[in-house]
Hints:
The complex is a heterotrimer of chains A (365), B (172) and C (451).
Chain A: E1 6-11, E2 23-29, E3 32-39, H1 47-51, H2 56-64, H3 71-86, H4 92-121, H5 126-145, E4 154-155, E5 158-159, H6 167-189, H7 193-199, H8 207-213, H9 218-222, H10 229-232, H11 253-276, E6 296-304, E7 307-315, E8 323-327, H12 329-334, H13 337-341, H14 346-356, H15 360-364
Helix pairs in contact in A: 2-3, 3-4, 4-5, 4-11, 4-14, 5-6, 6-11
Chain B: H1 2-23, H2 27-47, H3 51-75, H4 79-83, H5 91-114, H6 134-145, H7 147-170
Chain C: H1 2-43, H2 59-68, H3 80-99, H4 116-125, H5 127-137, H6 141-169, H7 177-187, H8 191-194, H9 196-209, H10 235-258, H11 285-300, H12 307-332, H13 340-366, H14 372-403, H15 412-438
Helix pairs in contact in C: 1-2, 1-13, 3-4, 3-5, 3-10, 5-6, 6-9, 6-14, 9-10, 9-14, 10-13, 11-12, 12-13, 14-15
Amino acid sequence: MLGADELVINMGPQHPSTHGVLRVKLKLDGERVIGSECIIGYLHRGVEKIAENRTYQQFAPYVDRMDYVAAVSSGLGYCEAVEKLLVAEAPPRARVIRTILTELQRIASHLLWLGTHALDIGALTPLFYCFREREEILKIFEKYCGARLTTHAFRIGGLQYEAYDTFEKDVERFCKDFESRIVEYATLLTENRIWIGRTKGVGILTAADAIAFGVTGPVLRASGVKWDIRKAAPYAAYDQYKFEIPVGTTGDTYDRYLVRMEEMRQSRLICLQAIENIPAGPIMAKVGKVLKPPPGEVYHAIEAPKGEIGYYIVSDGTVMPYRVHIRPPSFINLQAFDRMVRGHLVADVVAIIGTIDIVLGEVDR
Amino acid sequence: MLDKALFYFFAAVAVASAVLMVTRRNVVHGAIFLITALLATAGIFLQLRAEFLFIVQIILYVGGIMVLFVFVIMLVNLDVALQQIQFARQKWVALLVALALAGQVGLMFWSSGKMPGQGLPVLTAAAASSLPPNSETVAHSLFESYLLPFEIASVLLLVAMIGAVVMAKKRM
Amino acid sequence: MQATIEFLKLYWAPLLCGVAVVAILPLIAGYIVLVERKLMADMQARLGPMRVGPHGLLQPIADAVKLLIKEDIIPDNADKMVFWLAPVLSVGAALLSLAGLAIGPAFQIAQDINIGILFVVGISAMGIFGIVLGGWASNSHYSLMGALRSSAQLVSYETAAGMALVSALLFTGTLNIKSIVEVQSIEGIWFVMLAPVAFFTYLVASIAETNRAPFDLPEAESELVAGYMTEFSGFRWSLYFLAEYTNMIVVASVATTLFLGGWLRPFASVHGLPGFHLLNFLDLVPTLLLVAIAAYCIVRTPKQPTRVQQMFMLAVAGLCFVVGLVLLAPVVVPIAKPFYAGIHGGFWFILKVSLYIYFFMWLRFTIPRYRFDQLMRLGWHFLIPLSIINVLLVGVALIAGSYFNLHGWGLLLVTTPAAIITLVAALMILAAEKQRDAGHDPNAASDFYAG
Lengths: 365, 172, 451
């Protein structure tokens, strides 16, 4: 009835731990995974095709819906890409506020990742602590632009809304509180024997493999490759601030956990540096109401919380883009899943899916 | 009066379970009936004031050996076995031997009443309060009178365990 | 007929206790679930059930009613008889083992069994069949895998638990539950101080025995295999749940009886060292505790949002106050003095069991889950050698103690070195395991069940 021979089991698309509608077919030998296949597309909405029939400003809310966990970053990437096409630049004040909001979004995205990843491995409590902090960030977003999740915070050319009255104070208070909270999460998990036992040595991705698969973001950095677009090709106001890029050594799940924890700390530092000195001035560049970029193409990538999100926009001179292609980090990172999961036990599959930090909205678009 | 009723209850359950166990098609049902047979036997032990044997029967037989049986039943592919003919060709010889054995046992029961000194010894029940606790009696005999056989038995069990582990590991 | 009347005249008290326990236990288990949910909420910065009844107190009743009226789904090719039998076995074993326990010196259903502790442990081991047969009867590959994993875990940790109990039983010389507590009373010291390593081993093993976190992989929701309880819906599932919480009460009671002094008040020695009677003021602790809870409820009453919740808080305060008075009576009122052992014994026993279960729940919300092979490795490679070494060393310590004629607190002189040596041995085992792990190829095929 239960032999030790090969078995193919199906996980998802409805499953509490696949973080969305991901279907994974696992080929098992007894309890070990000897092969896997990810079947995606359950959340495909044809976003890239829709872009061809919307003006540039009309398409901006759509990019929030891809990585719905980190909408602000996706919006930043898109707005900057179109600004590159228009050869326009957002004013300094807008750039600094964009940086603050994007870094807050990075913290929020990592908090959600931490909570759900810990929940998958069995630690029930960090989820609620992480969401308590995430709630503070979402309140700031709501006060700023009216929305918590799909924010559409930025506009092409700058910002629509001025930073509200208590913006700096709110961000400063959050950053001050956050320091002790990170210590809370670290106390619960970092030195915990069971956590280390479940994550060390699990899902190892070597640096060579990571580069070969095109993996980016914390997954790449945990494998030992020091590559962060914020340092390599700075955008928004990142060149003005001092921060470190955490890099791991072995590329296992524990390293990815440590890298993301450190990234949260660094984001907090960036926010603190930024709110000290927000330059005065206009928040919107002079780009006109009707955007008709000159014919041409642009590829602009930024460091989203999950990795490199790239926008490839081809303009034919009309108000609607000819083609928009989005390079989602989760989609590319998911390719490495098969390499990471081979040889591990079934109980590790859930940990590995969690550690890549995928959002199916981004994978499927 | 209550004693007799309890004894007949346990005995009936034991016999019925044993019969059901060997006649079931479904192996798991057979295992369940074996469990009830063993539990009934434990009940009889309890009636004989052998409470240590009662609980050891439950812990070892029911809680250990039967769990092992059930594990094996569930892990082994039994469909092939079930396709085969249930009774072997020696069933007439088996019937003959069973009748002979039954005859011997019946003769023993019959003769213990009729001929003194033959068959089963008829003992009177000791007063309950004069018996030392069964656990202590067993412990005293195991660790004082029968210490050497006890140790040899434990070494035998150790050898069996190691043998099982070695055999299981070899298949890897 | 005459025999029945004789039987009833002799055994009416235990029978009444038995009926009471079976009737009330589902309710108690339901409220333990509510306590767990409220504790979980408290540790997770939220409130927990608040809607049903004041502060969510009627939640268990709502859950019970919901489960009772749910549709009873039986999988298509499931074996109906075994499907019906499996939860019954689980609950039956759990309730039967509860019968052998003594809550306080006055309340025991199966009174004066010679083999007390062994009875409890043995019968609760029969609950394994409920799990295995339940998983098999579901006719689902995943349920069966979950059931086999769960029962393999139970069987592995039973050995360690048994050896831990043996270490404590070495001090008593008898298996009778009341005698065990009596010995602790005579010696004046609880066995947790004489055999701390055994207590720790039993603690860990009992968490694994009841399938609680961090050993709850077979029934975790985020795992691939959803566990043996998957196909059971409605009341059948609640029977399994009842069995799990009853098992928790049973292991907590066994640990309390053997290690934590049963129903004894701390420092309650009658024949012990001189000066102990100075600590008799501890008799007032139960009353003070309940009066403090009542006072807290009264203080918080005005802060409640609705009138119903205010009345409820006052009612709780009143109840705690009354119970506090009942606990005070045997201490001060001379007529009630004979009831001291029963009432205070019951209080202390329930307090200790609650603390043990609180620790279980605390662990569940704090630490992540062990993977199955790590779990088996912990049981076989660490806990069983540790408990065997502990039995040996405690035996040696006892012989040394009787040679030097030590009693009560004096036994600490010999058992503490034994405990220290056991701890050193434990650290050596852990170091050896780490070394073996470092040299072990993680991708080599290994037997999952072998640990």
